[in-house]
Amino acid sequence: MFTRYTENNTGKSKSFFRKIVIIACLGIAFTVTTAYANDGLGTVYHVYVNEDHVGKVDDKEVVNNLIDSKVEEGEEEFENLSITIGEEISYIPEKVFNASTNNQKVANRLDEELSIKANAVELRVDDETVGYFDSEDTAKEVLKQYISAYVDEESVKEIRFEKQNDDLIIAGMPNPDKIDLSADESIVMDLTLSGNISILSQKVLPTAILSADEGIAMLEKGTLEDKVHTVKEGEVLGGIAAKYELSVNKLVELNDSLDKDSILKPDQEINVTEYEAFADIIVYEEKKMEESLEFETEIIESDDMYKGEEKVKQHGKDGTKEVLYSIEKTNGKQTDKEVLQETVTKEPVKEIVMKGTKVISSTGTGNMVWPAVGGYISSHVGERWGKTHKGIDIARPTNKNILAADNGVIESAGYNSGGYGNKIVINHNNGMKTIYAHLASIDVKVGQVVEKGSKIGVMGSTGNSTGIHLHFEVYKNGSLQNPTKYVSQ
User: Which fold has domain 223-276?
Assistant: First the structure.
Protein backbone atom coordinates (compact mmCIF):
# COMPACT_ATOMS: atom_id res chain seq x y z
CA MET A 1 0.00 0.00 0.00
CA PHE A 2 1.30 3.43 -0.95
CA THR A 3 1.07 6.45 1.38
CA ARG A 4 1.02 9.78 -0.51
CA TYR A 5 1.91 13.25 0.82
CA THR A 6 2.77 16.71 -0.50
CA GLU A 7 5.62 18.98 0.47
CA ASN A 8 6.11 22.73 0.10
CA ASN A 9 7.83 23.26 -3.22
CA THR A 10 8.95 26.83 -2.69
CA GLY A 11 12.23 26.21 -0.92
CA LYS A 12 14.71 28.73 0.43
CA SER A 13 17.27 30.47 -1.69
CA LYS A 14 20.62 28.70 -1.79
CA SER A 15 24.00 30.32 -2.17
CA PHE A 16 25.76 30.20 -5.50
CA PHE A 17 28.40 27.85 -4.06
CA ARG A 18 25.80 25.38 -2.86
CA LYS A 19 24.19 25.50 -6.29
CA ILE A 20 27.50 24.36 -7.91
CA VAL A 21 27.84 21.55 -5.39
CA ILE A 22 24.22 20.40 -5.95
CA ILE A 23 24.70 20.29 -9.71
CA ALA A 24 27.91 18.24 -9.30
CA CYS A 25 26.21 15.79 -6.93
CA LEU A 26 23.23 15.44 -9.25
CA GLY A 27 25.63 14.62 -12.11
CA ILE A 28 27.03 11.72 -10.10
CA ALA A 29 23.65 10.56 -8.77
CA PHE A 30 21.99 10.59 -12.18
CA THR A 31 24.50 8.02 -13.51
CA VAL A 32 24.07 5.54 -10.72
CA THR A 33 21.35 2.93 -10.38
CA THR A 34 20.89 2.11 -6.73
CA ALA A 35 20.29 -1.47 -5.63
CA TYR A 36 19.33 -2.30 -2.13
CA ALA A 37 20.90 -5.16 -0.19
CA ASN A 38 19.09 -8.46 -0.48
CA ASP A 39 18.82 -8.75 3.25
CA GLY A 40 16.76 -5.53 3.74
CA LEU A 41 14.01 -3.20 2.49
CA GLY A 42 14.74 0.06 0.73
CA THR A 43 12.57 3.14 0.14
CA VAL A 44 11.90 4.66 -3.26
CA TYR A 45 9.82 7.80 -3.97
CA HIS A 46 7.32 8.01 -6.78
CA VAL A 47 7.34 11.61 -8.03
CA TYR A 48 4.17 13.29 -9.33
CA VAL A 49 3.75 16.61 -11.11
CA ASN A 50 0.12 17.78 -10.93
CA GLU A 51 -1.11 14.19 -10.52
CA ASP A 52 1.08 12.89 -13.40
CA HIS A 53 3.68 10.21 -12.48
CA VAL A 54 7.14 11.16 -13.78
CA GLY A 55 9.28 8.39 -12.23
CA LYS A 56 11.04 7.14 -9.09
CA VAL A 57 13.96 8.57 -7.15
CA ASP A 58 15.86 7.17 -4.23
CA ASP A 59 16.05 10.51 -2.41
CA LYS A 60 13.63 13.43 -2.34
CA GLU A 61 16.55 15.82 -2.22
CA VAL A 62 17.20 15.05 -5.85
CA VAL A 63 13.91 16.78 -6.64
CA ASN A 64 14.18 19.46 -3.96
CA ASN A 65 17.64 20.48 -5.09
CA LEU A 66 16.46 20.80 -8.67
CA ILE A 67 13.54 22.97 -7.50
CA ASP A 68 15.89 25.14 -5.46
CA SER A 69 18.10 25.59 -8.49
CA LYS A 70 15.20 26.70 -10.69
CA VAL A 71 13.94 29.09 -8.03
CA GLU A 72 17.39 30.67 -7.71
CA GLU A 73 17.58 31.16 -11.45
CA GLY A 74 14.20 32.92 -11.36
CA GLU A 75 15.21 35.10 -8.42
CA GLU A 76 18.32 36.21 -10.27
CA GLU A 77 16.24 37.20 -13.32
CA PHE A 78 13.35 38.77 -11.38
CA GLU A 79 15.03 40.29 -8.35
CA ASN A 80 12.04 42.04 -6.81
CA LEU A 81 9.56 39.18 -7.04
CA SER A 82 8.86 36.17 -4.86
CA ILE A 83 9.65 33.24 -7.17
CA THR A 84 8.25 29.72 -6.91
CA ILE A 85 7.56 26.65 -9.04
CA GLY A 86 4.27 26.76 -10.87
CA GLU A 87 3.42 23.06 -10.57
CA GLU A 88 2.39 20.94 -7.58
CA ILE A 89 5.11 18.36 -6.71
CA SER A 90 4.14 15.34 -4.62
CA TYR A 91 5.75 12.06 -3.53
CA ILE A 92 4.53 8.58 -2.71
CA PRO A 93 7.12 6.52 -0.76
CA GLU A 94 7.30 2.77 -1.33
CA LYS A 95 9.18 0.11 0.70
CA VAL A 96 10.66 -2.44 -1.73
CA PHE A 97 13.28 -5.21 -1.97
CA ASN A 98 15.97 -4.75 -4.57
CA ALA A 99 14.50 -1.37 -5.62
CA SER A 100 15.82 0.40 -8.68
CA THR A 101 15.44 4.10 -9.54
CA ASN A 102 16.41 6.42 -12.38
CA ASN A 103 17.23 9.83 -10.95
CA GLN A 104 18.49 11.03 -14.32
CA LYS A 105 15.24 10.35 -16.14
CA VAL A 106 13.14 11.99 -13.42
CA ALA A 107 15.42 15.02 -13.33
CA ASN A 108 15.17 15.45 -17.09
CA ARG A 109 11.37 15.25 -16.96
CA LEU A 110 11.20 17.74 -14.13
CA ASP A 111 13.56 20.14 -15.87
CA GLU A 112 11.25 20.12 -18.89
CA GLU A 113 7.93 20.33 -17.08
CA LEU A 114 8.58 22.64 -14.15
CA SER A 115 7.96 26.36 -14.81
CA ILE A 116 9.09 29.48 -13.02
CA LYS A 117 6.17 31.43 -11.51
CA ALA A 118 5.87 34.43 -9.22
CA ASN A 119 3.85 34.49 -6.02
CA ALA A 120 1.29 37.19 -6.77
CA VAL A 121 -2.05 38.63 -5.78
CA GLU A 122 -4.85 38.95 -8.27
CA LEU A 123 -7.01 42.09 -8.06
CA ARG A 124 -10.54 41.32 -9.22
CA VAL A 125 -13.67 43.41 -9.63
CA ASP A 126 -16.66 41.11 -9.69
CA ASP A 127 -15.62 38.43 -12.20
CA GLU A 128 -13.11 40.57 -14.09
CA THR A 129 -9.36 40.45 -13.48
CA VAL A 130 -7.79 43.90 -13.27
CA GLY A 131 -4.26 42.56 -12.99
CA TYR A 132 -1.64 40.68 -10.98
CA PHE A 133 0.62 42.43 -8.47
CA ASP A 134 3.59 41.53 -6.35
CA SER A 135 1.79 42.12 -3.03
CA GLU A 136 -1.46 43.08 -1.34
CA ASP A 137 0.04 46.47 -0.51
CA THR A 138 0.62 47.22 -4.20
CA ALA A 139 -2.93 46.15 -5.10
CA LYS A 140 -4.35 48.36 -2.34
CA GLU A 141 -2.21 51.28 -3.48
CA VAL A 142 -3.60 50.86 -7.00
CA LEU A 143 -7.14 51.11 -5.59
CA LYS A 144 -6.22 54.17 -3.51
CA GLN A 145 -4.74 55.97 -6.51
CA TYR A 146 -7.81 55.12 -8.60
CA ILE A 147 -10.10 56.52 -5.91
CA SER A 148 -7.94 59.64 -5.50
CA ALA A 149 -9.15 60.96 -8.87
CA TYR A 150 -12.57 61.56 -7.32
CA VAL A 151 -11.89 62.57 -3.70
CA ASP A 152 -9.62 65.07 -1.99
CA GLU A 153 -6.14 64.22 -0.75
CA GLU A 154 -7.08 64.31 2.94
CA SER A 155 -9.89 61.82 2.42
CA VAL A 156 -7.57 59.48 0.53
CA LYS A 157 -5.22 59.48 3.53
CA GLU A 158 -8.10 58.32 5.74
CA ILE A 159 -8.89 55.32 3.56
CA ARG A 160 -7.88 51.89 4.73
CA PHE A 161 -8.89 48.47 3.51
CA GLU A 162 -10.16 45.64 5.63
CA LYS A 163 -10.00 42.11 4.26
CA GLN A 164 -12.94 39.79 4.83
CA ASN A 165 -12.01 36.40 3.41
CA ASP A 166 -10.90 37.32 -0.13
CA ASP A 167 -13.01 40.51 -0.30
CA LEU A 168 -11.77 44.04 0.39
CA ILE A 169 -13.95 46.45 2.34
CA ILE A 170 -13.21 50.20 2.31
CA ALA A 171 -13.01 51.70 5.80
CA GLY A 172 -11.54 54.71 7.54
CA MET A 173 -14.15 57.40 6.81
CA PRO A 174 -14.70 60.14 9.48
CA ASN A 175 -17.00 59.94 12.48
CA PRO A 176 -20.11 62.03 11.60
CA ASP A 177 -20.52 63.15 15.22
CA LYS A 178 -17.19 64.99 15.08
CA ILE A 179 -17.85 67.04 11.94
CA ASP A 180 -18.15 70.82 12.18
CA LEU A 181 -18.07 72.34 8.70
CA SER A 182 -17.72 76.00 7.82
CA ALA A 183 -19.49 77.59 4.87
CA ASP A 184 -18.29 76.29 1.49
CA GLU A 185 -16.50 73.33 3.13
CA SER A 186 -17.20 69.69 2.34
CA ILE A 187 -16.12 66.35 3.73
CA VAL A 188 -16.30 62.80 2.40
CA MET A 189 -18.52 60.74 4.66
CA ASP A 190 -18.26 57.44 2.85
CA LEU A 191 -17.28 55.93 -0.44
CA THR A 192 -17.73 52.63 -2.15
CA LEU A 193 -17.02 50.89 -5.41
CA SER A 194 -19.88 49.61 -7.52
CA GLY A 195 -18.27 46.18 -7.94
CA ASN A 196 -17.18 43.52 -5.47
CA ILE A 197 -13.42 43.90 -4.88
CA SER A 198 -11.37 40.81 -4.07
CA ILE A 199 -7.70 39.91 -3.72
CA LEU A 200 -6.63 36.32 -4.37
CA SER A 201 -3.27 34.58 -4.02
CA GLN A 202 -2.06 33.26 -7.37
CA LYS A 203 1.01 31.90 -9.15
CA VAL A 204 1.61 33.66 -12.46
CA LEU A 205 4.37 34.21 -14.96
CA PRO A 206 6.72 36.90 -13.63
CA THR A 207 6.15 38.93 -16.81
CA ALA A 208 2.43 39.13 -15.97
CA ILE A 209 3.10 41.17 -12.80
CA LEU A 210 1.96 44.80 -13.20
CA SER A 211 3.46 47.86 -11.58
CA ALA A 212 1.19 50.19 -9.61
CA ASP A 213 1.10 52.67 -12.51
CA GLU A 214 0.17 49.93 -14.96
CA GLY A 215 -2.58 48.75 -12.63
CA ILE A 216 -4.04 52.25 -12.33
CA ALA A 217 -4.01 52.56 -16.14
CA MET A 218 -5.88 49.25 -16.42
CA LEU A 219 -8.52 50.37 -13.90
CA GLU A 220 -8.99 53.68 -15.68
CA LYS A 221 -9.21 52.06 -19.12
CA GLY A 222 -11.75 49.44 -18.03
CA THR A 223 -12.86 46.38 -19.92
CA LEU A 224 -14.47 45.95 -23.32
CA GLU A 225 -18.24 45.54 -23.38
CA ASP A 226 -20.57 44.92 -26.31
CA LYS A 227 -22.63 48.01 -27.12
CA VAL A 228 -25.15 49.19 -29.71
CA HIS A 229 -24.62 52.62 -31.32
CA THR A 230 -27.58 54.53 -32.79
CA VAL A 231 -26.46 56.45 -35.86
CA LYS A 232 -26.98 60.22 -35.86
CA GLU A 233 -27.47 62.47 -38.90
CA GLY A 234 -24.21 62.87 -40.83
CA GLU A 235 -22.25 60.11 -39.06
CA VAL A 236 -19.97 57.83 -41.10
CA LEU A 237 -18.23 54.52 -40.35
CA GLY A 238 -14.80 56.09 -39.84
CA GLY A 239 -16.06 58.60 -37.26
CA ILE A 240 -17.99 55.97 -35.32
CA ALA A 241 -15.01 53.58 -35.35
CA ALA A 242 -12.72 56.30 -34.01
CA LYS A 243 -15.19 57.17 -31.24
CA TYR A 244 -15.00 53.62 -29.89
CA GLU A 245 -11.26 53.15 -30.61
CA LEU A 246 -11.98 50.59 -33.34
CA SER A 247 -10.69 50.19 -36.88
CA VAL A 248 -13.21 50.34 -39.73
CA ASN A 249 -12.36 46.70 -40.49
CA LYS A 250 -13.19 45.69 -36.91
CA LEU A 251 -16.47 47.63 -37.04
CA VAL A 252 -17.45 45.86 -40.26
CA GLU A 253 -16.48 42.55 -38.63
CA LEU A 254 -18.93 43.21 -35.81
CA ASN A 255 -21.79 43.92 -38.23
CA ASP A 256 -22.66 41.36 -40.93
CA SER A 257 -24.88 43.87 -42.74
CA LEU A 258 -22.08 46.41 -43.23
CA ASP A 259 -19.14 46.79 -45.58
CA LYS A 260 -16.58 49.58 -45.89
CA ASP A 261 -18.72 51.44 -48.46
CA SER A 262 -21.98 51.22 -46.52
CA ILE A 263 -24.01 54.45 -46.26
CA LEU A 264 -25.45 54.84 -42.79
CA LYS A 265 -28.95 56.06 -42.06
CA PRO A 266 -30.11 58.09 -39.03
CA ASP A 267 -31.40 55.87 -36.18
CA GLN A 268 -29.70 52.80 -37.68
CA GLU A 269 -28.31 50.54 -34.92
CA ILE A 270 -24.84 49.03 -35.30
CA ASN A 271 -22.81 46.82 -32.99
CA VAL A 272 -19.71 48.32 -31.36
CA THR A 273 -17.48 47.58 -28.41
CA GLU A 274 -16.66 50.18 -25.79
CA TYR A 275 -14.47 50.29 -22.72
CA GLU A 276 -16.52 50.27 -19.53
CA ALA A 277 -15.05 51.07 -16.12
CA PHE A 278 -14.28 48.04 -13.97
CA ALA A 279 -16.00 49.81 -11.10
CA ASP A 280 -17.64 53.19 -10.48
CA ILE A 281 -16.40 55.27 -7.54
CA ILE A 282 -19.45 56.34 -5.54
CA VAL A 283 -18.69 59.12 -3.06
CA TYR A 284 -21.02 60.36 -0.34
CA GLU A 285 -20.13 63.77 1.05
CA GLU A 286 -21.60 66.50 3.16
CA LYS A 287 -21.19 70.11 2.10
CA LYS A 288 -22.19 73.31 3.85
CA MET A 289 -23.00 76.27 1.60
CA GLU A 290 -24.01 79.87 2.24
CA GLU A 291 -26.94 80.73 0.01
CA SER A 292 -29.14 83.71 -0.65
CA LEU A 293 -32.53 83.72 1.06
CA GLU A 294 -34.86 85.56 -1.31
CA PHE A 295 -37.14 88.24 0.10
CA GLU A 296 -40.90 88.00 -0.18
CA THR A 297 -43.04 90.62 -1.88
CA GLU A 298 -46.21 91.89 -0.26
CA ILE A 299 -48.80 93.60 -2.48
CA ILE A 300 -51.03 96.24 -0.87
CA GLU A 301 -53.94 97.45 -2.96
CA SER A 302 -54.70 101.17 -2.93
CA ASP A 303 -57.76 102.94 -4.31
CA ASP A 304 -55.80 106.20 -4.20
CA MET A 305 -53.80 104.99 -7.21
CA TYR A 306 -55.08 104.12 -10.65
CA LYS A 307 -55.21 100.54 -11.84
CA GLY A 308 -51.91 99.66 -13.51
CA GLU A 309 -49.91 102.03 -11.29
CA GLU A 310 -47.44 100.58 -8.80
CA LYS A 311 -45.19 102.15 -6.19
CA VAL A 312 -42.58 100.46 -3.97
CA LYS A 313 -43.25 101.45 -0.38
CA GLN A 314 -40.37 99.35 1.04
CA HIS A 315 -37.52 97.85 -0.97
CA GLY A 316 -36.78 94.20 -0.30
CA LYS A 317 -33.38 92.78 0.63
CA ASP A 318 -32.25 89.17 0.37
CA GLY A 319 -31.15 87.40 3.52
CA THR A 320 -28.65 84.54 3.86
CA LYS A 321 -28.80 80.96 5.06
CA GLU A 322 -26.40 78.09 5.64
CA VAL A 323 -27.50 74.83 4.04
CA LEU A 324 -26.00 71.43 4.83
CA TYR A 325 -26.33 69.07 1.87
CA SER A 326 -25.84 65.34 1.51
CA ILE A 327 -24.38 64.82 -1.96
CA GLU A 328 -23.83 61.63 -3.92
CA LYS A 329 -21.33 61.60 -6.78
CA THR A 330 -20.54 58.80 -9.22
CA ASN A 331 -17.15 59.13 -10.89
CA GLY A 332 -17.09 62.80 -9.96
CA LYS A 333 -20.56 63.64 -11.32
CA GLN A 334 -23.38 64.57 -8.94
CA THR A 335 -26.14 61.96 -9.01
CA ASP A 336 -28.16 62.95 -5.93
CA LYS A 337 -28.49 65.91 -3.55
CA GLU A 338 -30.52 66.22 -0.37
CA VAL A 339 -30.92 69.02 2.18
CA LEU A 340 -30.03 67.86 5.68
CA GLN A 341 -30.28 71.15 7.55
CA GLU A 342 -30.96 74.86 6.96
CA THR A 343 -29.99 77.72 9.30
CA VAL A 344 -31.00 81.34 8.62
CA THR A 345 -28.01 83.63 9.24
CA LYS A 346 -29.63 86.89 8.08
CA GLU A 347 -33.36 87.49 7.81
CA PRO A 348 -34.59 88.92 4.50
CA VAL A 349 -36.41 92.26 4.34
CA LYS A 350 -39.86 92.06 2.79
CA GLU A 351 -40.61 94.23 -0.23
CA ILE A 352 -43.90 96.13 -0.01
CA VAL A 353 -45.54 97.28 -3.23
CA MET A 354 -48.56 99.56 -3.44
CA LYS A 355 -50.79 98.59 -6.35
CA GLY A 356 -53.53 100.86 -7.66
CA THR A 357 -57.10 99.66 -7.96
CA LYS A 358 -58.76 102.89 -8.97
CA VAL A 359 -60.39 102.59 -12.41
CA ILE A 360 -60.60 105.62 -14.74
CA SER A 361 -63.98 105.92 -16.37
CA SER A 362 -63.83 106.29 -20.14
CA THR A 363 -67.03 108.35 -20.02
CA GLY A 364 -66.85 112.07 -19.40
CA THR A 365 -68.37 113.61 -16.27
CA GLY A 366 -70.05 116.38 -18.25
CA ASN A 367 -68.12 119.03 -16.34
CA MET A 368 -64.98 120.04 -18.22
CA VAL A 369 -61.90 121.69 -16.71
CA TRP A 370 -59.59 124.34 -18.15
CA PRO A 371 -57.21 122.40 -20.51
CA ALA A 372 -54.07 124.37 -19.60
CA VAL A 373 -52.23 125.45 -16.48
CA GLY A 374 -53.24 129.07 -16.27
CA GLY A 375 -52.98 131.31 -19.34
CA TYR A 376 -55.60 133.45 -21.07
CA ILE A 377 -57.72 133.36 -24.21
CA SER A 378 -55.75 135.12 -26.89
CA SER A 379 -58.27 134.37 -29.66
CA HIS A 380 -61.98 133.38 -29.53
CA VAL A 381 -64.29 131.36 -31.77
CA GLY A 382 -65.49 133.29 -34.85
CA GLU A 383 -64.32 135.06 -37.98
CA ARG A 384 -60.62 135.77 -38.08
CA TRP A 385 -58.50 136.79 -41.06
CA GLY A 386 -61.29 135.88 -43.42
CA LYS A 387 -61.79 132.39 -41.98
CA THR A 388 -63.80 130.78 -39.17
CA HIS A 389 -61.68 130.19 -36.12
CA LYS A 390 -63.19 126.97 -34.70
CA GLY A 391 -61.82 127.12 -31.20
CA ILE A 392 -60.14 129.26 -28.64
CA ASP A 393 -56.42 129.93 -28.34
CA ILE A 394 -54.90 129.80 -24.84
CA ALA A 395 -51.54 131.50 -24.40
CA ARG A 396 -49.00 132.37 -21.70
CA PRO A 397 -49.74 129.55 -19.22
CA THR A 398 -47.99 129.03 -15.88
CA ASN A 399 -46.40 125.91 -17.38
CA LYS A 400 -46.86 124.30 -20.77
CA ASN A 401 -48.66 121.10 -19.74
CA ILE A 402 -51.84 120.35 -21.71
CA LEU A 403 -54.62 118.68 -19.69
CA ALA A 404 -57.58 116.49 -20.66
CA ALA A 405 -60.77 118.54 -20.25
CA ASP A 406 -62.75 115.48 -19.11
CA ASN A 407 -62.54 111.67 -18.87
CA GLY A 408 -62.43 109.95 -22.25
CA VAL A 409 -60.57 107.79 -24.76
CA ILE A 410 -57.85 109.05 -27.09
CA GLU A 411 -59.38 108.81 -30.55
CA SER A 412 -56.36 110.13 -32.47
CA ALA A 413 -52.92 111.41 -31.57
CA GLY A 414 -50.30 112.53 -34.06
CA TYR A 415 -49.25 115.13 -36.60
CA ASN A 416 -52.00 116.71 -38.73
CA SER A 417 -51.05 118.12 -42.13
CA GLY A 418 -54.12 120.44 -42.25
CA GLY A 419 -52.44 123.15 -40.17
CA TYR A 420 -53.14 121.75 -36.68
CA GLY A 421 -49.62 120.39 -36.23
CA ASN A 422 -49.45 117.87 -33.40
CA LYS A 423 -53.07 117.16 -32.56
CA ILE A 424 -55.02 115.07 -30.01
CA VAL A 425 -58.73 114.16 -30.22
CA ILE A 426 -60.50 112.86 -27.10
CA ASN A 427 -63.88 111.11 -27.36
CA HIS A 428 -65.64 111.57 -24.03
CA ASN A 429 -68.25 108.90 -24.90
CA ASN A 430 -71.13 111.15 -23.85
CA GLY A 431 -71.62 112.97 -27.18
CA MET A 432 -68.71 115.33 -26.48
CA LYS A 433 -65.32 115.46 -28.21
CA THR A 434 -62.42 117.86 -27.61
CA ILE A 435 -59.46 118.76 -29.86
CA TYR A 436 -56.02 119.99 -28.74
CA ALA A 437 -53.69 121.40 -31.44
CA HIS A 438 -50.23 122.92 -32.09
CA LEU A 439 -48.64 120.70 -29.33
CA ALA A 440 -44.88 120.53 -29.01
CA SER A 441 -45.16 116.85 -27.88
CA ILE A 442 -47.80 114.19 -27.28
CA ASP A 443 -47.82 112.02 -24.12
CA VAL A 444 -50.73 109.67 -24.93
CA LYS A 445 -51.58 107.03 -27.54
CA VAL A 446 -54.71 105.96 -29.39
CA GLY A 447 -57.09 103.87 -27.28
CA GLN A 448 -55.71 105.11 -23.97
CA VAL A 449 -58.25 106.07 -21.29
CA VAL A 450 -57.43 109.45 -19.76
CA GLU A 451 -58.76 111.13 -16.67
CA LYS A 452 -60.05 114.67 -16.43
CA GLY A 453 -57.17 117.03 -15.59
CA SER A 454 -54.40 114.51 -16.50
CA LYS A 455 -51.47 115.59 -18.67
CA ILE A 456 -51.78 114.58 -22.33
CA GLY A 457 -49.05 116.70 -23.95
CA VAL A 458 -46.99 119.90 -23.97
CA MET A 459 -48.00 123.28 -25.47
CA GLY A 460 -46.10 124.26 -28.60
CA SER A 461 -46.28 126.01 -31.98
CA THR A 462 -46.47 123.20 -34.55
CA GLY A 463 -48.53 123.50 -37.77
CA ASN A 464 -49.92 126.94 -38.78
CA SER A 465 -49.17 128.87 -35.63
CA THR A 466 -47.98 132.38 -34.83
CA GLY A 467 -46.52 131.44 -31.46
CA ILE A 468 -46.69 129.05 -28.56
CA HIS A 469 -50.30 128.43 -27.57
CA LEU A 470 -53.04 125.76 -27.32
CA HIS A 471 -55.81 125.67 -29.93
CA PHE A 472 -58.82 124.06 -28.16
CA GLU A 473 -62.09 122.95 -29.85
CA VAL A 474 -65.29 121.42 -28.43
CA TYR A 475 -67.92 119.38 -30.32
CA LYS A 476 -71.28 118.09 -29.14
CA ASN A 477 -72.88 115.34 -31.17
CA GLY A 478 -70.66 116.41 -34.08
CA SER A 479 -71.55 120.11 -33.91
CA LEU A 480 -68.93 122.73 -33.18
CA GLN A 481 -69.40 124.44 -29.80
CA ASN A 482 -67.95 127.52 -28.20
CA PRO A 483 -65.51 126.12 -25.59
CA THR A 484 -66.23 128.97 -23.23
CA LYS A 485 -69.69 127.45 -22.62
CA TYR A 486 -67.91 124.44 -21.04
CA VAL A 487 -64.60 125.66 -19.63
CA SER A 488 -63.43 128.69 -17.80
CA GLN A 489 -60.23 129.68 -16.12
Answer: Membrane-bound Lytic Murein Transglycosylase D; Chain A (3.10.350)
